[in-house]
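User: Hi! I'm working on a homework problem where we have to compare a predicted structure to a textbook description. Could you give me the structure for the chain below?
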Amino acid sequence: MMADINTAIYTDGTTKQLPEGELSLEFMQKVVDGYIEVVPIGSNLYLVCNEEGKLVHLPPNPTATIICMAFGFYDEIVGNVIICTRDKIK
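Assistant: Happy to help. Predicted structure tokens:
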């Protein structure tokens, strides 16, 4: 699981390591394709997702859902997401 920290996870199952340093709001909005919501899912671990993802019926993100469940966050994750530590969020 640790390899998935500081990673963008896309609905097609692909992942991309995040750039070094803090992430700008614009970068996060681009990844999730909309306004962001930051949700704590573990000790110093956060999920950044589209705040309206379920309302606009974004596709499920099974990879992100499984990772979140491993940290005790039991909800279906939709849309592209970022999983990162707090220091990545501006």
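For your comparison, note the following. The chain has a mean pLDDT of 92. DSSP finds two helices and five strands in the chain. Good luck with the assignment!
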